[in-house]
Amino acid sequence: MPGPGDNAVVPLNSLFGVPTPDPFVTYHQTTCLYYAVNLAVDKRSGKYAAISVRSSRALAGLKTAKGRTVWQAPPDSLEGNGIWAPEMSFLDGNWYVYFAIAPIDQPEARRMHVLKGHGEDAGAATFEYVGQLRSASDKWAIDGTVLTIPATSSGAALDRYFIWSGWPGDHDGEQRLYIERMESPVKLKGARVEISRPDQPWERIDCGADDNGRVRPALNEGPTAMVDEDRGLIHLFYSANGSWGEHCCVGRLTAALDSNLMDRRSWNKSDGPVLASDPSRGIFGPGHPHAYVDHVGGRKLAFHAAVRNGQDYWGVQGDIRFAFETGIELTDGHPVVELPYALYP
């Protein structure tokens, strides 16, 4: 029977049917549509050079839905392998896509940037490039996500934060998670605050120099927030360890909804990963999670994972990470996330 060791076989339960790193899926209640934001590869340069949006009435339909290119990156902004990890949020009546790019030959200049799409339907909206989402720190930044704290009946106003992965300094090294208040969907205010660093043994398994002398940094990246209003909690899922190998996993931070989110002490880290490699299920290196609510109100977590083990999941052999999804069950305020099996014909 074909399975994870057979490179020609695609898992039946992969969201898109092709390798899809850093997956993004959401459901919009007004249009009753699922949306996915994907990257398109330029055949000549081999880089992720464009952002596309696809839509479908059903989640399964995203696999065959045709993507519509909403933005083409200028060639001089495609440092490394190009655009990184676009994510889309519906804010104040419009869609916003947040992504990271850097000028050619300036890897340390990678920053978060924003597109604005006009209208309710992201699949038909016209998107325009707004510019860099500037933090006062102005340091390397990737994997940005929006955290919206809803208004309450007691009179507390809606509040928004931007959370991302970045360097503490100006040079390649450890990646930490930072938070900053949002003045608007395209403008931050105040200063960034660190809320997590890879300080636990399970977050530092593959950091340091490898057999080829390359230094693998310890990292926290790919944050995504789930707000549990009933229990007054925020759960922030994120990736730990390098996305290039089997030790990549998903961790969790939790904070009280009414706490000072700009205080690192408000965020409590899980004792271990909530998702990790499981050879018996054919899933290796789960990472870059994205939390959302589906059409029936179910809480879901999309993520990427390799379906066979190897030395480098996105190196010279090509990307072998597929997008999967699993449910999030809340038990006594603690999210329970079960790793799915990779299913084959």
Radius of gyration: 19 Å
The CATH class name reads Mainly Beta
Helix content: under 10%
- Secondary structure tally: strands: 22
Could you tell me the CATH topology label. Answer: Tachylectin-2, Chain A
Oligomeric state = single chain
Largest sheet: 4 strands, antiparallel
Q: In DSSP terms, counting alpha (H) and pi (I) runs of 4 or more, how many helices?
A: 0
Instruction: Provide the structure class.
Output: mainly beta
For the record, the count of structural domains works out to: 1
Shape: globular
**Percent of residues in beta strands?**
over 45%
What is the overall pLDDT average? 91
> By CATH's scheme, which homologous superfamily applies?
Glycosyl hydrolase domain, family 43
Order of helices and strands: EEEEEEEEEEEEEEEEEEEEEE
Strand order of the largest sheet: 1-2-3-4
> What low-confidence regions span 5 or more consecutive residues with pLDDT below 50?
1-8
Gap from first CA to last CA: 8 Å
Structure characterization notes:
- The protein has 345 residues and is mainly beta.
- It has a single domain (25-337), classed as Tachylectin-2, Chain A, CATH 2.115.10.20.
- 0% of the residues lie in helices and 46% in strands.
- The protein is built from no helices and 22 strands.
- The protein has a four-stranded antiparallel sheet, with no helix packed on it.
- Strand 21 and strand 22 (334-337) form a beta hairpin.
- The protein starts with 24 loop residues before the first strand and ends in an 8-residue tail after the last strand.
- 42% of the residues are buried.
